[in-house]
Amino acid sequence: MKIENPFENGHIKNYLLLYASVVVIMVLFFLASTLFNDAKSIQKKVFTTDAKSTLEDKRVKNIEDNSQNKTLKSKLKLMDRSY
Description:
mainly alpha, 3 helices
């Protein structure tokens, strides 16, 4: 059994056509993604720079959460035996 040389039999044209078609498809997908992708306007985020008020708000919120957790713990009962 002899291996055929693709350069001698004219198969190189098929390989080049395959390569060119893959490149053309990649270019078409790139163009379609850039043309049909609508860029939405991005709103600028503004962060507060007042650190004291945010820390105090977090402390108050944590105290409220802890008081709610205590009431939830008293309402829930665990099973006597684990399975």
